[in-house]
Each structure stands twice: as structure tokens, then as C-alpha cells.
Structure prediction request, 385 residues.
Amino acid sequence: MTAGAVLLLVTARISPTEALQAIDWNVIAYLFGVFAISHALFASGISERVSNRICADMQSLPRVLFLFFCFVTVVSAVLTNDAAAAIGTPLAIAIAANLGIRAALPLIALCVAVTVGSMFSPVGNPQNLLIVADGHFKNPVGTFLVWLAVPGLISLGFALFWFWFCLAREPKGGAPEHVTPDAQTMRAWPALAATGLLCVLVVTDSFAHGSSWMPDLPLGALSLIAAVPLFLFSNQRLQLVKEVDWHTLVFFVSMFIVTGAVLKSGVLQTWLSPWHDQLDERALVTTIAFFGSQVFSNVPLVEIYLNLLKDHDTATLMLLSGISTLAGNLFILSAASNVIIVQQTEKHGVEPFQFWQFTRYVLPVTIVSLIACYAWVALMTSIIR
Prediction:
């Protein structure tokens, strides 16, 4: 990704100034804070205790998967999908170790739970934030629950049974070792305080959206504020900075530059222009949101789509949100959270899943999820009208 960004800069497809403007520093700041918090949870042994609790009864695989999916879904809905990806990776590896299997399949299940879980709330992922800002909903949390909770629950239910079926047939052997810190010397309470503060800030900001009693702070600022207890009271501040996943941050900076060059070229705008008057039709929204997200990534696609829409009715915006989110369940590069999980897995010294292996396992979930989302939005639209 960095090589592509450098090539675009060298060939003047995008200027240095335009490249800096294309980078979403809010996302970078959010990831920095989340990575610091997730490492603190890991280094203090909190992640290990959570994984031990989830894996307490490995004889009951459905129970383990259910608790794992519930935990990841809540984290994804409250703290965004990228946070859930970073926090959930050690848990998925621990499940694989307890089952005595390779880590790939539990990690793929984590990707699905992270993506679907982010559908439930307006802060679940970046494209939801764009849609909330554009839709001016009076109650963003309630709106997302009404329109996307049912297809989200159907998708998670099917994914739970699907991965239960797949994991029960996964051959033993090649299991990763339990991922544990070398020495759990980091204090636990700063990590817990930072996590709790991030939850409170994100949820409060969501409910206070558009009100006058709380300043409208970006997620990046909330993440950095939440990380303050770590850098004030942790006994390993330098280690925290060192263990931030800088490789992933560089990947995102480069991705924003590449995406900025694509947007500057006008390719996406030209591609959508022949259907300008039909962009609110459900079939077209579904097709463009899903396949366009594979080519251009869901966040820039949603941003351009919102600029081209004439009527920003709730049904169209919710369908755009749901389909563009579920598009992440097709290829590894379809969602940034998938990339984070791969990077975090390699950081822990464990072999992640492969490109086509990922697609093979998530394709059934993707099909069911898309049908559920499309059908529910269509049903809700007919009821409301």
C-alpha cells in the first residue's frame, strides 16, 4: 500500500498537499488510542482472563462461540469495528489453542462478528458516522436498531451455526500457543479505566449527537482522551508507545493517499453518473454499495454516494449503511478491520488466514446477510409508507 502511495506521489497523480488532506487523521488518532488500550489490556493480563472465562467449558463449543460472538458484537457496536478487531484477536487465538486447531478459522469468525456487530450502532464503523452526519437523525441509536438490528441478529445467528459446523469438523493439529504477555507487570487499573472511559465517551457522544450540552468531538479525540489514564498512570508508558501497531497505522495513511488519488481522478463519480436519478432505488443501492465497496473501499464509496443522492430518506441511508458494511465479508481487503486482525495476528507470532480461505468461509454468511438486510429494509419501508 505504501509503495502504491509513493508511486502516486512521484507520478504527481496527487500532490503532497492533497495527500495530507486525503488522510483521515481522525481515524489515525482513533486507531492510535485503541491500539494503546488493546495492548494495555493484553499486557496487564485482562485479555487473558476474558479469554479464560469464555473458554471455561471447551466441551460446549456452542457456548464458547456464543459468548465470543456476544463479546465481540458489543465491543464492535460500542467502540467501533477497528477496536473490536484489535481487542478480539488474542481471544480468537486463545479459542484456537484451547480447541487444538489452527487459528485461521476462529480469526475468520472474529472478522465476521466484528463486521456484522458494527451494523447495530451509528458509531460501529466510519461509514455509519458519515451517514449519521448526513441523515440528521433525531435518535441515531434508535434509528439503527430499528432498521438494522433484525438483519444483524439474523446474520449473527447464521454465522454462529455456520462456524459451529465448520469448527466441529476442523482437524486437530497446528494449534497456536496461548498468546500471553512475557510478564504481566503492567498495572491493570489504568487499562480498565481507559476502556471504561472510551465506552462512556463514545456512548455519550452518540446520544448527545447534535445537542448543545456536549461538544461534538470526533472519535479520534475521544480515543486520545480515553488513553490519557494509560500514559499518566501506567508503569510502562514507553512500552505502550512501542507496542502500538505502527505497521497498520502506516497502512491506513497510505490507503487514504491511494483512495484520495482515486477520488481526485473522478473515476468513481463518472462510474455512478449514468444512474444519478436512480441512486435511491433499492436494487441499485445494494449493487453499487456491495460491489463498489470491493473496488473503492466502503468509506470513500459511501462519502461519494451521499454527495450524489438527491433525496436522503432514512430507508436509502440505512440500506446503504447495511450493505456497505456487509460488503466487508467477502475479501480480506474489503474491510479495514480484516486487515487489522491479520496484522495483529502476525504481531503475536501466529499465522493468520489466507486470502481465498477467508472468502470460502465467509461467502455463505455474506449471502444470507445481504438477503436479510435487503428484505428487512424493504419490509420496513412498506410498513412505514
The two ends are 46 Å apart (CA to CA).
